[in-house]
What does this fold into?
Amino acid sequence: MPGGVAFSGSWETCYRVNLWSRIASRVLWRIHEFPYASEQHLYDAAKALDWPRYFTVERTLRVNVAAAGSPLRSLEFATLRIKDAVCDRFREALGRRPDVERASPDVRIHAYLEKDRGALYLDTSGEPLFKRGWRAQQAEAPLRENLAAGIVMLTGWQPSEPLLDPMCGGATLLVEAAAIARARAPGAKRSFGFEKLSSFDARLWQRLKDERAAEPPNPQIFGSDTDPEALKAARRNLAAAGVERWVKLEQADVLERAAPASTGVMVMNPPYGERMGSLEDLASFYPKLGDALKKRFAGWRCYIFTADLRLPKLIRLAPSARTPLWNGALECRLYEFRMVAGRPTRGSRP
Ligand SMILES: C[S@@+](CC[C@H](N)C(=O)[O-])C[C@H]1O[C@@H](n2cnc3c(N)ncnc32)[C@H](O)[C@@H]1O
It folds into this structure.
């Protein structure tokens, strides 16, 4: 479905996906689907569920409603009606109702409303999955962790190949690449929504967390940036994620630095827009970047992630692939340039 995938499975599958998915934002458990045409129908559909079976009255609660093509005028009112239905069901069963907590609720209920059908979900993730629990310091314009992991995966990088991010900022791409190479579970340092549900199986969860993969090989991962503050943040983030020994950082300008190996994968996310680089600055930067790649990165596959759709023209290299991606609401591309003997070829993807 747009923006998501659906699957079915046991709780073990649910726990594993939460623990191991590097690219998902949330794993939602669909508990009810129903037709509707009014707020009252939403109330009735939500009231029909045996909520005290799913979680105890001591848990705090939050309801989120998202809609596409819904005839309802106020999603706020729809949210309120669903929350009322859940609380009324508790009150009828136990004489008490759970409290609402907006910032960090124990239990999140999501409703998705289409034109005439709705669905209710319990959120098994809790905090979104891009929050891995390692980000110690915000550098400027960091990528979300799940987007960064997705970009690394789309490059087709194998941990046996060298990887370089020469505009590494706070090192999101480098942390995610190192975690992939070292088979680190992205969710190992955080808690999850499913731990707050009555179905929670603590022994199963502990067993899944204790599973160890075979000792993975040592990757060769490199990062650089011109900004010493960004490098400081990068060092802290790499250390917090426990992967600093796999990543070599240095202060360098991408236009001048040498390749750290004769072949490899370069991946980067240049500044874009008002926050970091003006459009004029970037228009003069891209041709120089193209020259630097031609001169010093023959033999490398280079990937540039940007919202600046002028890039392929201005860099004066022919991309061999362009993958559309969304960074929040911003439409972006991941451009692939295969650098061969000083010029790119239009090759097929790995
Ligand atoms: C958008 S940020 C990268 C964010 C990073 N991908 C992350 O998620 O943390 C762009 C970075 O490029 C760096 N930069 C700008 N011009 C550079 C240059 N000529 N050489 C190397 N780094 C540069 C900036 O200091 C900034 O840290």
Remarks:
- The mean pLDDT is 93.
